[in-house]
Specification:
Blueprint (H helix, E strand, L loop, with lengths): L2 H24 L1 E8 L8 H17 L3 E6 L5 E7 L3 H8 L9 E8 L3
Antiparallel strand pairs: 1-3, 1-4, 2-3
Length: 112
């Protein structure tokens, strides 16, 4: 193999590595484990529809992949995709109930 072949192989390797990295990033998820005693939140009947409206907006934008409400109205688990933890924190702050949340942020890789 000559120099040109070596360069071609190197460029192919770089491109493959970049594509693998991009594919891995697409599989990254941020899980928000939210604790909130909804029954103790003042004006919960006003805030809850706005909360679900915000969730629907994020789902339509392709950011929120899943929403699970915890048993006994004690919080929720949200799964965000294609964002990092800093972005997830910024997005979480846009929920109407945010000031009542305790949130654990978990970075995870989705395999299937």
């Amino acid at each position: 193999m000559g120099k040109a072949d070596d360069i071609t192989v190197s460029v192919k390797t770089i491109i493959e590595n970049q594509m693998n990295y991009k594919n891995q990033m697409k599989m990254k998820r941020i899980i928000l484990n939210i604790t909130c005693e909804l029954d103790k939140v003042p004006n919960i009947d006003e805030l809850l529809p706005k909360e679900f409206e915000r969730g629907e907006e994020l789902k339509q934008k392709g950011i929120m992949e899943h929403l699970f409400v915890k048993e006994g109205r004690m919080g929720a688990v949200l799964v965000f995709k294609d964002v990092d933890e800093a972005e997830a924190k910024e997005i979480a702050s846009t929920f109407p109930l945010f000031k009542h949340f305790e949130i654990e942020y978990i970075s995870a890789d989705k395999f299937y």
